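Repro:
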Amino acid sequence: MRRIVQSKKLQHVRYDVRGPILVEAQRLEAEGHKILKLNIGNTAPFGFEAPEAIVADMVHNLPQSQGYADSRGIYSARTAVAQYYQSRGLTATSVDDVYIGNGVSELITMVLQAFVDDGNEVLVPAPDYPLWTGAVSLSGGTPVHYRCDEENGWMPDLADIEAKITPNTHALVLINPNNPTGAVYSQEMVRSLVDIARRHDLVVMADEIYEKILFDDAVHHHAAAAAGDDVLCLTFSGLSKAYRVCGYRAGWVMVSGPTHLAGDFLEGLTLLANMRMCANVPAQHAIQTALGGYQSVSELIAPGGRFREQSKLAARLLNDIPGVSCVEPMGALYCFPRLDPQVYPIESDEAFVIDLLRAKKILVTHGTGFNWFAPDHFRLVTLPDEEILTEAIGRIAEYLETIRA
């Protein structure tokens, strides 16, 4: 039989958060080593449990969840999402503007498949959540990475965005709060980004999955509010992070702005929703309970809360390592520290994290895996409790000392 190879569509698609490094970690585990996995924001392994009311509501509705649902999502879930955005000033949002999916990841892929033609360019931040780059490529488009400025708190470089717009640019992606940097954009920054989209007739795609995970005086501003009624905006969010239900796969996309001009695109999105029949029905019943109930994440992000304290501890410990600098995150669940190239002359950051894994049994993700331009960063998940986090960063410090030596 002929050799079977992967599709050419995958030639430029990468997802290094779960790539060769994870394979090496699994090999080490098979040999009996205990690996501390700080590569993905999976809340459950670190002692974060779903709110009891969400679990109870899912269990209660299981007998009614055995059949297919509306491909756009069950009515109660879509209504809850619409009302959520109405309560945040987006009063024109209706149930028909909401699509429920198996997590934000599925919806990003569906939206881009419905939106992108071969060769279309989509502006994506660097660093980014790599699913965006991979999904643009898989849909036949060209991801064009605009720089976020580390010296300015990882804010998007507006001039760099403007410089990279061509007649073939069709959309601008925002990730706010940002994964992997933890940056939270000011209202002025969000308005400036949307204004660029407005001037160049671009669709805004706003990934806001971490919108509730904010520290200190950080405030989240919806891109849809700045987009108003004249810029088409697709807002992605869900339950995975703030409600600690990553495995439930309950996410949504909300469409706002001049939807009367997007009827053909929305018809295509509905077609793709129909083709996958429907999203996981039991998890959809969790959405109304989550959005309308007690917001337990508030305790985790307040002073003394685990999300906040662990994020600050990680940034502090990383900044204490010679030759390492880390912008303190204002939200999300990650740190994205920089390794000074003068101190750590690393040519391949993927090789660096594999060597770190083998030496110290710590699994992190290299910065170029997030489409950063140089091999001088890595991403660390801040979900372990303070004792484990201190030990993990201590092991990283020990390994970096050997490089310096």
